[in-house]
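queue> pop job 88
queue> type: inverse folding (structure -> sequence)
queue> payload:
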């Protein structure tokens, strides 16, 4: 400020003297420069004294905490993580979380975040209320059959086991939703589509209720998604002992969960269709599973399920042609022969198995009675299977103790992190019997396979199948046997 006043006074002096303003002398300019230099030196001295005093005061005073805006703190927090139902599983998405997991996401807001679980991220709003996740799966298969006495069965085919795209999410702790469409047959097919509500009954006991187009909770592999099955195709119990409407139906499914198991009941009509001129079929299905032994490295699984189905007037065809040596050889089936006039079906089954360390075993058996009109005897289907696997890399089987099924694995050493992934050897024997009908056939298959999980959402699978069929009707009758070699590459988001 003193320097500013000195400069202004000098300019005023020059302006007041016209002659000087026009042609200042050398002496005048030298005097002005000397005056300004003195003022600058004085100002620098004062600044030095002020800086020294400030430094001494800061050194002797206690350090005050730094105040940081909440948003900055949130951005520096550790990434949000959802704890899985078991350490060998990938974290569940918003629609599959328990009440405790949903509460943890709501009560720990950390700004707008993304949580990388398996494949694609889960997006969280800043307040923890909203969650959203894209979903999808790509399962590409190739299959070659040989050894049959029928040339029509010795074929090589390719196909998309699943080609899905969808989404899931939640609002707050209780409300959730999921939607998926499948394009594997080169047409749009709506599969899972529901809204749901979850809550606690008491500590250690909670429930959820789903309404919409629902996937069956029926048997161990029948309740396992196509992207998580240990073999390329589900067992004969899952594919043959099934409601006439198939794996899906529109309805409601309440489920109850406790620490060692779960139970569900499902009431549905038909799957999604365009027929509204006649009444739907009605299906009531229930299942429960229990883990009487449950530790960090082992589980004993016991399960039972059953369904009853009343068929509509336009759903009376009960003909079955069930896969036995792979999904993508349409000629390789066990056939019931033509069968019409069905009024309803009743089916039931049991499950027993578990795992200890990297080794797992599961046995399933089921029976289905299809009621026929005109006083004819029931069409009885019987199936059973025994399956097992061993992880050579020491990973635990991807058993989901909440649902009593297989899920997406959490690989110990993913290949994308420089590891070997998870390598699993599998084996299965399965049998299917339609011979209670005069036109019904029977068959069995023995499968050995290897699964290589690159990480939690990418896998390669190879199955070698020895199959045997004895059909009494259709194009390929009589006893026949052969081999099928199948492979799959799968990615699940």
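queue> result:
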């Amino acid at each position: 400020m003193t320097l500013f006043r000195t400069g202004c006074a000098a300019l005023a002096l020059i302006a007041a003297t016209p002659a000087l303003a026009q042609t200042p002398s050398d002496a005048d300019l030298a005097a002005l420069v000397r005056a300004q230099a003195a003022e600058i030196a004085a100002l620098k001295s004062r600044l030095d004294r002020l800086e020294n005093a400030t430094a001494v005061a800061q050194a002797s005073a206690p350090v005050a905490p730094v105040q940081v805006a909440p948003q900055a703190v949130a951005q520096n927090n550790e990434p949000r993580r959802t704890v899985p139902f078991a350490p060998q599983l990938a974290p569940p998405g918003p629609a599959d979380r328990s009440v405790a997991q949903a509460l943890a996401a709501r009560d720990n807001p950390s700004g707008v975040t993304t949580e990388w679980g398996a494949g694609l991220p889960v997006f969280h709003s800043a307040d923890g209320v909203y969650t959203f996740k894209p979903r999808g799966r790509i399962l590409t298969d190739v299959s070659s059959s040989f050894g049959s006495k029928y040339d029509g069965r010795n074929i090589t085919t390719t196909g998309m086991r699943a080609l899905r795209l969808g989404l899931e999410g939640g609002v707050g702790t209780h409300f959730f939703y999921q939607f998926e469409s499948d394009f594997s047959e080169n047409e749009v097919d709506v599969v899972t589509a529901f809204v749901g509500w979850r809550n606690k009954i008491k500590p250690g006991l909670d429930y959820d209720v789903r309404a919409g187009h629902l996937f069956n909770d029926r048997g161990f592999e029948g309740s396992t998604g196509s992207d998580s099955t240990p073999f390329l195709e589900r067992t004969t119990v899952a594919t043959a002992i099934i409601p006439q409407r198939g794996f899906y139906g529109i309805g409601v499914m309440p489920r109850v969960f406790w620490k060692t198991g779960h139970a569900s009941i499902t009431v549905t009509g038909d799957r999604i269709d365009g027929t509204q001129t006649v009444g739907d079929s009605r299906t009531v299905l229930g299942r429960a599973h229990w883990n009487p032994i449950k530790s960090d490295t082992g589980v004993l699984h016991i399960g039972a399920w059953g369904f009853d189905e009343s068929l509509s007037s336009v759903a009376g065809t009960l003909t079955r042609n069930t896969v036995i040596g792979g999904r993508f050889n349409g000629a390789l089936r066990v056939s019931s022969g033509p069968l019409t006039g069905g009024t309803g079906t009743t089916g039931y089954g049991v499950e027993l198995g578990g795992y200890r360390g990297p080794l797992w075993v599961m046995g399933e058996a089921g029976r289905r009675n299809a009621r026929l009109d005109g006083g004819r005897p029931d069409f009885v289907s019987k199936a059973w299977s025994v399956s097992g696997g061993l992880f050579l890399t020491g990973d635990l089987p991807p058993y989901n103790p909440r649902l009593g099924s297989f899920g997406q694995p959490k690989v110990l050493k993913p290949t994308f992190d420089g590891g070997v992934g998870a390598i699993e050897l599998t084996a299965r024997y399965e049998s299917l019997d339609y011979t209670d009908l005069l036109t019904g056939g029977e068959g069995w298959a023995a499968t050995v396979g290897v699964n290589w999980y690159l990480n939690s959402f990418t896998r390669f699978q190879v199955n070698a199948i020895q199959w045997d069929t004895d059909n009494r009707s259709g194009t390929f009758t009589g006893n026949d046997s052969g081999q099928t070699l199948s492979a799959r590459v799968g990615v699940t988001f």
